[in-house]
Design brief:
alpha/beta
Length: 120
């Protein structure tokens, strides 16, 4: 089970994943992206592994949400049931501009820590 999961590894998500892989064992990092080849290339470069959104939602302790704001509703349709079923503690880290902590909490459907970051 990986500690860190990145759903969406575009410019921001990929940069954060790179930074995490430099500080922890890359085997602790899972990457997912709707462009599978993007996640595969970065995973190879960083030494991380590729997963799907569901696997990251079910297994990672720290889940970085690097999707565009307009993609959040669709993402949470997929992962909210998985997150609700978890018995362990996890943290959601959102980097989507314009998506509030309250909105992420509501979409998650479960009380969980949410951190909102604005990397630049």
């Amino acid at each position: 089970m990986a500690m860190f999961g990145f759903i969406g590894v575009g410019n921001m998500g990929g940069a954060l994943a790179s930074a995490v892989c430099k500080k922890v064992d890359p085997a602790e990092v899972m990457l997912a992206d709707h462009f599978a080849e993007k996640a595969e290339a970065l995973a190879k470069e960083y030494g991380a592994s590729v997963a799907d959104n569901a696997t990251i939602a079910s297994e990672c302790k720290y889940i970085f949400l690097g999707v565009k704001p307009q993609g959040f509703a669709g993402l949470f349709e997929e992962i909210a049931p998985i997150l609700k079923a978890r018995k362990d503690r996890f943290v959601l880290i959102s980097m989507a501009a314009g998506v509030s902590v309250a909105a992420v909490e509501k979409m998650c459907g479960k009380k969980a820590p949410v951190i909102r970051i604005m990397p630049n």
